[in-house]
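This entry is listed below:
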Amino acid sequence: MTFVAAVIVLGPGAGVLAFHPSRPLYMQQRPVALRAPDGVVLHGTLSRPRWRRAAVPGMVIVHGSGPLTRDDVRGDMRALVGMGFAVLTYDKRGAGRSEGVFLRQWGDSAQYVLAQLAADAAVALDSLRAAEGVDPARVGFLGASQAGWIIPLAAERAQRRPRFHVLLASPAVSTGVEQYYSDLSGDGSRPAQLEDRPKLEARVLAYTGPRGYDPAPVLARSTVPTLWMLGERDQSVPTFASRRVLDSLARNGVSTHTVVSFRNANHFLRDADGGAQPPVWNKMMSWLQSLGVVRAP
């Protein structure tokens, strides 16, 4: 299929507006350069609704694991801009156009790697909050998988507290527990070592090996309203174990975490059997409306 750029004549004296399918007409974009605390320059893009005159809420999208770039979250970015958000995306350090070295994990280095990525995300949040046309009081994070460890750490490093966190298929367990579960379950990409689900869950809950980075203390002291959207058939993140951590926090008076589980969803929050897709964006928007971040339609 061949795409042809289109041109719209705006009227006498108004000039011409050209656009291409890679840059939808409903959004405007500009490049951004973010300097991390260690001097590394991260390259990104700020995308926002083209026709909005009033300041809009904003989101920084934080990557999951791997040397990912802005292109890897383009679909989510476009969806969010279409819903009225300004969105800042960036190439992970050591990936795409960003400087630095992409560090692989885990083991004893998990704490260091996650702290470094959190510092990068905090700089992105500070930049988005200061951007023209963005309401600084309605800015927060969205991220999937590994981002669930990064985002709460980034919130503690940002100049001002985010208004919200949206965590998709993210772990509330330690890096050691998540790795152990992935090894047993096959991580959705290889045969499982243990097929029996009750036995697998019991084995994970009884795990006594190396913990690596444990997010529980950060989650316990967080004051940022956080929406967790989890898939019960996730083969990468042990949803049952994450729920146990979050339920424990709630019993101990931590009220900042809201959990939504999709019974048949996998790690990508897609229906594992190819059925109707879970209403992820609808759930998110309803929750953000309850916080006053967005207005009800």
Remarks:
- The two ends are 36 Å apart (CA to CA).
